[in-house]
Amino acid sequence: MVILFIILPLIIAGLLPLLGKVSKKVLPDFLANAVFALLLGYSFNFAWNASAGKTILSQVNLAGIPLGITLRLDALSLLMLFTIALVSLGVGIFSVNYINQEKYSSKPIYYSLLLLTVAGMNGIVLSNDLFGIYVFLEIAAIASYALAAYGLGKEELEGSFKYLMLSVVATSFILLGISMIFALTGTVELNGIASVLAYSKAIKIKYLIGICSALFIMGFGLKSAIVPFHSWMPDAYSKAPATLPAMSSGIMVKAAGLYVLIRLFYNVFGITPAVQTVLMYLGVISIVVGALLALGQNNLQRLLAYSSISQIGYMVVGFAIGTPLGFIGALFHMFNHGIFKSLLFLNSGSIENATGTRELDELGGLAKKMPVTAGTNIVASLATAGVPPLNGFWSKLIIIIALVQAKFYIFALIGILASVVTLWYFLIIQRRAFFGKLNETWKDVKEAPFWMSLSSIMLALICIILGIAFPWFIRLWIEPAANVLVAGIIR
Amino acid sequence: MNIDILLFPILLPLIFAVMGLFLKSKKLINYWAVLGSAAVLYCAYVLFGIKQASLVLPWLGHGIDFDLKLYGFNAAILLWVNIFTFLVVLYSTIKMETSTRIKEYYLYVFLTVMFANGSVLADNFVLFLFFWGGLLITLYMLIMLGNLNSYKTALKSLILLGLCDFCLLLGVVLLWKISGSLKISAISLEAQGLAMISFLLIMIGAIGKAGAMPFHNWIPDAAIDAPVTVMAFLPASLEKLLGIYLLTRISLDVFHFQMNSPVSIVLMTVGAITIVFAVMMALIQKDFKRLLSYHAVSQVGYMILGIGTGTPLGIVGGIFHMLNHAIYKTGLFLSSGSVELAAGTTEMKKLGGLMKSMPVTGLCFSVCALSISGVWPFNGFVSKEMIFHGSYETGYLIFTIAAWVGAIFTFASFLKAGHSIFFGAKSTEIPEVKENSWPVLVPMIILSAFCILFGVYSILPLKLFILPALSGHPEVLAELTFTHNLSLLNPIALISMGCLVIAFGLHYLGVKKGQGKAYLASEPVHNLPIIKTIYNLAENRVFDFYEQGVKLIKLLSKVIYYTVDRPIDFVYERVVTVTGRIVIFILRVLHNGRFANYLSWSLAGLMALGYVMGTLIKKAG
Amino acid sequence: MNIYILVALILFSVMAVFLRDLLKSAICLAVASIFLAVMFFRMGATYAGVFEVSVVAGLITVLFITVIALTNDDAKVPENKWPIIIFPVALAIFIIFDIWFMNKFIILPSKALPLLAQGEKFGDVLWGQRTFDLLGQIGVIFAGVFGVFAFFRRKTDE
């Protein structure tokens, strides 16, 4: 029942506002988190299958009648499903307390939107045809516009509106690309496209595929905030409720952007040196520009948004190398980044919940008042900056080793230098928000409530445990997924 | 899951270490620790009975497996590691009773056992390094448990041994490069060329762990600063066992070299120098523990000399000496701890005539001291004789002479120690002392019993523990006979006994000169013309390459600060930050919040992409 | 006819991007998506057309217009004006580039055409038998409806 990954959140999302009439808080809290936990557990169900390299193509039947729905579940999509479920569980648990804030309210609707983003992402990941990807992309996107503006402040709306405008442009280019592919091959099914393209060697077709690639890089690149298509991200994140960027930067940019890109380039079109070169340069530019821009920021979530851009650059570079090691590094970094970046955003939510602000200027000395938040934040920051022995270190190390192995020495050097810059701005956060003199305004500040702390601790623990147990994790989850990419064009 | 028995010596201490943290009462913790060490000891005993086993679990891939292998020799080492652990833990129940950090102490002890067992069993160099490196950390933590100054000593040990471990790491990497394998038992090389360099690097790691010169400097300091049980536990027993174990493995199994090859000469030289210099330093010490610690260094010299000879007899002697040394040196440290516990000090000047009030301690001390001095029929005699014979066979008489010189001064210094502490006139500086309770005495008694047993019936330990090291080397075994050194009537044995007589004479003269004060017995040697200056230099740590190295590094850092760091800082201040600021400024101006602009970049990006893709495809097609 | 719709579509999209007033901009976006929907209908993509009208033109616009109307307090974010020229220039260059590029390379290869030669319309092939999209569209409609709920809740709260 692979379809459960899509249907379950969709049904619960539909039911929640109705059930919300009965119980305004407890039931939505419970139901939404139960769904996330269930999806997380359910993804383990397929882990052994997928790590053995099997691909499940599931034809959905309704009462014995086959519907025109085919889902593709292989190790790569399973890794994505797992990441999505894990991060959304963290975010869901965090929301139990966080959405009680006055300006948010109306929990059932909030959870419905959260569940819809999850349904959308799961749909993207499982979909076996291009147009399906497009439709589910829209679900996730629309739900996240609404979430981005959930506080209904002026700046939130503006950020959300920019997000919407740029996304619409991106999706129309994606649509254009899809129609061109359809015109070229006569199908939108991924394996259909792959098998048609595998036999067409004409130079014209290569050019057309090149144009489509450019359109997809632009469209999905905008979704995954690769420079120069990144500019919606800081604006959309800076004022949104902290759970949205945690969700969006944690997994959405990957499921809706990077995942589709690599799936298309490695498994459908077949990778070409041209695409590899382009992605490599885009990735490196993202790393540098994101890291530099993060340096000068004052708003915590804006800073984290730029940091995400920089980290996504690492993944793009890792994928662009095209060696097995590069895939492993990039996929592992993808997972790790999902964990620690969502943790960082949730931390900023905790801070905002306690103090009402996210401006670093106004904070200071919070470590004594909020030890859990400060502690988990340090773990996440160090993991992002790639300090051993946390998980981020290993994934970055693997990417850099892969770069060196593929003889991209300059890029490897840039990667290392950028991670120094990363460490730098995270230390700035630590100094300005958590250490130093306690700002008099915050002397009555309390630690984040139970569920918020629980979710932070959970994510921080994953960072630490993975830092030690990474070989096993890589063997079970990452390597099979990398093998899907190594195997090349699907049949 | 079925847990392989080979994992027990590694997992059990870990379990006991962690569980110990949850215990509240001090008494309970003591019982727990004794129980734990007994359990691990039993486990090691069972393994010693099994003799042959191996376990390979996939670990990091790329030839790096979790690879454990048990064979005769390391089964013996494993057994002895755990015997010493058990005795030291038993002893600690009383000796560490006053410590407030007892929980930490046992935690580190059990972790040490885990790492030690792991490195003995490991059959993969990376796994081995993992455990070996762990020992470095637990040693650091254990020394830190000592007095207020211990952090300095701990740091010193960390740096010195860290240096050795680094050499070891380099050696392993080089070895990997040469042989292409990381499986210890699968590598077999002739020690020539690059392999020789690799051998020397790994050798530094091994003898550094064992405490040979010039990596010994932390041991005398630790003798003062660290708890005495830590001294008995690590530098006296475990580190010797491990260091010499590694040295044996690399010089017998991994590499092989001929008698009198360059490698052999290097080893013998290191051994001889260590023997002579360390024993000279030991001779003049006024503190019992410090004296013992210099002997701990000096005796390593014998082992290295023995193994370095490359002759069957020398090698067996060296390994046997390792075992013997671990036994009697642990016994000596424990007796010094016993004295400290009862009298509150270990300075020889203040002590005297303890024999009557502490007969068991005194007796055990005497047995161990006679053993270390190589008096017939104790165990030290047998192994030292074998080393003398082995080094004599190489034809380089100088090394044999150095070993004899070492023997003279060893005996002299122990005559001095014993005379001033246990015999002679009763001291007035300390209050009335009483013999300690049984957990302190039993370990010492057991160790002394071993000293006598292994001396009288030396074939037993040789057959049981030492010869397995030579399994797989039938050519060595064939030549080996133990007959000639068991008879007292051969020239070499007679010379060694002559040495003991000389030592006795020296002591007698010294006491006479010091007007009957035994602790001044070494003063005549101390005050000899040239030697005095050397001693003074040594006391001022001129030969301590750690201290000198620290000075040199401080100087270098100053030089580098002014010639390299400042200019770079200038470049950074003036060039990097300014350009960085400009770049960031431009980027921030571009992010002005107008999404029309954002969109134009996206379009521009798309165009650029299209163009680049087009040209790249054209180029490829 | 199609070409006029296309031009109008582009025109309104550009205005949506270019206008500084969020309200007008949102309306332009809605009009643009209506034109897009008309294109879909004309090409036989009924599902996609309904989808476009219902969600993008309908729900999202309602959502934004209402919210913007609710919170329009004229507190404009200060911005620097100098790069105002960038977008028109970029757009113009893009259109020229686009025409040049597409003209040069778009000649549909014959391989895909046999599928269309069986008397089917292009649209039938593209949009027929797409049950999967129904599921997706349910999701999209949910998202839009809940989005509107979310945005209207301030009003009901007050």
The gist of it:
The complex is a heterotrimer of chains A (491), B (621) and C (158). With 621 residues, chain B is mostly helical.
What does this protein look like?
The complex is a heterotrimer of chains A (491), B (621) and C (158). Chain A has 491 residues and is mostly helical. Chain A has helices at 4-19, 26-45, 47-51, 75-98, 107-126, 130-148, 154-185, 190-198, 203-223, 232-239, 243-269, 273-295, 300-321, 324-355, 371-385, 391-405, 409-434, 450-487, and strands spanning 56-62, 65-73. A two-stranded antiparallel sheet of chain A has the order 1-2. In chain A, a hairpin with a 2-residue loop joins β1 (56-62) and β2 (65-73). The radius of gyration of chain A is 21 Å and the shape is globular. The model of chain A has no long low-confidence stretch (mean pLDDT 87). Helices cover 74% and strands 3% of the residues of chain B. In chain C, α1 packs antiparallel against α2 (22-42), α2 runs antiparallel to α3 and α3 (46-71) packs parallel to α6 (131-157). Chain C contains six helices and no strands. In chain C, 74% of the residues lie in helices and 0% in strands. Chain C has 158 residues and is mainly α. Classes of the chains: A mainly alpha (491), B mainly alpha (621), C mainly alpha (158). At the A-C interface, α1, β2, α5, α6 and α7 of A face α2, α3, α4 and α6 of C.
- Binned strand content of chain B: under 5%
Instruction: Provide the gyration radius of chain C in Å.
Output: 20 Å
Q: What is the quaternary state of this protein?
A: heterotrimer
Largest sheet of chain B: 2 strands, antiparallel
Q: Tell me about the biggest sheet of chain C?
A: none
- Structural class by secondary-structure content of chain C: mainly alpha
Main interface: chain pair and counts: A-C, 61 and 57 residues
Number of alpha- plus pi-helical segments of chain B: 23
Distance between the termini of chain B: 57 Å
Please give the order of strands in the largest beta sheet of chain B: 1-2
> Percent of residues of chain C in beta strands?
under 5%
Mean pLDDT of chain B: 81
Q: SS-based structural class of chain B?
A: mainly alpha
| Number of DSSP E strands of chain C | 0
* Low-pLDDT regions of chain B: none
Q: How many DSSP H or I helices of chain C?
A: 6
